[in-house]
């Protein structure tokens, strides 16, 4: 017994299966090759396999027929379907037959290696079966206060302070305070979130915003002199308090489905550089997923 993950490559293209087999061996897998579905079944009956990489388009038994046979004689083996001509219907058929995944050829060897390890974890009853989804680590919408676009900034700030006061008086004091409000329009459509960053942005004088203008040039040294910018923040914030939330330009929310896995969550955080994602169930907003929520899950996984 080698202790390596046993992988069988089933493909009727000799060059592809042999090249893939060699690359997988370099990645540390123990590989077996088969040139047809019939050959694969014969091997499997004599030599159990952990993961099977199965081409769909083959002469004789095609991939779906072979998958059905594999699940009949070795249901614990995990099957990754490979195809050069993928389709949604074919992927759905593979899912119904309990394939682990469905990948397009040619497939990057690192992606394939990662998928094989994930399939093996499922075979072993590991974390890939129980990994949480976005909804499992989000903070539900009930934990946040909501406001309307016509709410004034003063009222919004008072509502934020009220929620912080309630938090301090409760047993939830150890949890992170919700320093944002959910904003909805007349039709109860979710518009965005109002937070401290939005208040700071709203308080900035328009002449400090790009594009650079002569007005910006005219005051660029003003702050050097005593009193140049003193009191400007107070003036701007007093003016802001009278405005309605709808007069601010809120950043468009970045949405993620409640069923998204943690790698999808991580990838969206990385691509958008946002610190929070809005979690949806269909068209309904159900919560917020923050960077720290993902971090706590990282801690849980690493510490286990």
Topology:
Blueprint: E1 6-10, H1 14-26, E2 30-34, H2 37-46, E3 51-55, H3 63-73, E4 78-83, H4 88-96, E5 101-104, H5 109-123, H6 134-137, E6 139-140, E7 145-148, H7 153-168, E8 180-184, E9 190-195, H8 196-203, H9 214-219, H10 232-242, E10 255-257, H11 262-272, E11 276-281, E12 284-290, H12 291-303
Parallel strand pairs: 1-2, 1-3, 3-4, 4-5, 7-8, 10-11
Antiparallel strand pairs: 6-12, 8-9, 11-12
Word description of this protein:
With 304 residues, this protein is of the alpha/beta class. 42% of the residues lie in helices and 19% in strands. It has 12 helices and 12 strands. It has helices spanning 14-26, 37-46, 63-73, 88-96, 109-123, 134-137, 153-168, 196-203, 214-219, 232-242, 262-272, 291-303; strands at residues 6-10, 30-34, 51-55, 78-83, 101-104, 139-140, 145-148, 180-184, 190-195, 255-257, 276-281, 284-290. Strands 2-1-3-4-5 form a 5-stranded parallel sheet, with helices on both faces. The protein has a 4-stranded mixed sheet with strand order 6-12-11-10. The longest helix is centred in the middle third of the chain and has 16 residues, at 153-168.
Q: What characteristics describe this protein?
A:
304 residues; alpha/beta; Rossmann fold; CBS-domain; 2 domains; five-stranded parallel sheet; four-stranded mixed sheet; 12 helices; 12 strands
Residue stretches low in confidence (pLDDT < 50, at least 5 long) are 166-177
Mind summarizing the main beta sheet? Answer: 5 strands, parallel
Structural class: alpha/beta
Number of domains in the coordinates? 2
Largest beta sheet: strand ordering: 2-1-3-4-5
Helix content: 40-55%
- Beta-strand share of residues: 15-25%
**What would CATH call the class of the largest domain?**
Alpha Beta
Order of helices and strands: EHEHEHEHEHHEEHEEHHHEHEEH
Q: What name is given to the CATH topology of the largest domain?
A: CBS-domain
Q: How many helices? A: 12
Radius of gyration: 28 Å
The name of the CATH superfamily of the largest domain reads: CBS-domain
